[in-house]
Design a protein that fits this description.
With about 220 residues, this protein is of the alpha/beta class. It has helices at about 15-25, 30-50, 60-75, 95-105, 115-130, 150-160, 205-210, and strands spanning about 55-60, 80-85, 110-115, 130-135, 165, 190-195, 210-215. The protein has a single domain, classed as YjeF N-terminal domain (Rossmann fold), CATH 3.40.50.
Amino acid sequence: MAGTSPKPAILTREQVRELDVQAVSKLKVPSIVLMENAGRGTADVMQKLGIEGMVAICCGKGNNAGDGLVVARHLTLRGYHCEVLCWESPEGLRDDAGINRDICRACGIGLHQLSGDEGALQATNYFHVADWIVDALLGTGAQGAPRPPLDAVIRAANASRARRMALDIPSGLDADTGVASSPTFQADHTCTYAAIKPGLLVPAAQVLVGQLHVIDIGIDVHWA
């Protein structure tokens, strides 16, 4: 007999950081396993929602970019066409994100490095033909308005007719307060990981969050 899933916890960005630390140090779960579960869970959600064309995955730096790379790999393995648009040099990705960069390359997934105004224009061209745009630009730790060229990328994504998926939280939205910067990625769907961030529940943020999906990344917040 199947058990019932516990109600998702609500955790601030600082509590999420501590959860990540405890998952590795206390529960002995490698951080790359958490990233893998997050990205694979997002790919599952997107597949259930339906994918009818190219998926443009916009990566910044750090763990959010790593999540995006995992999504790209799993969707590619399932036969979908993904284009990974990198707004930081892929060579600058470190730790788990760097490992997933190397895995993507080994799997033959191209990583396109874009920068400046020209890069924003190139991104717009990808967005015009995309079925989905995935926001893996800024994670829950980001605060303040997105800086150039990410601001232009977000505006271009918001102007696109493509469906939009945010990873963990829409870029430009404060994870704790729900205050939206100008611009903020306007998601149709948001896959948030392990726990709901308070900012995702603020009424004024709902138009930016879209439908919220909480992804099980293989740890219970109460274990840590």
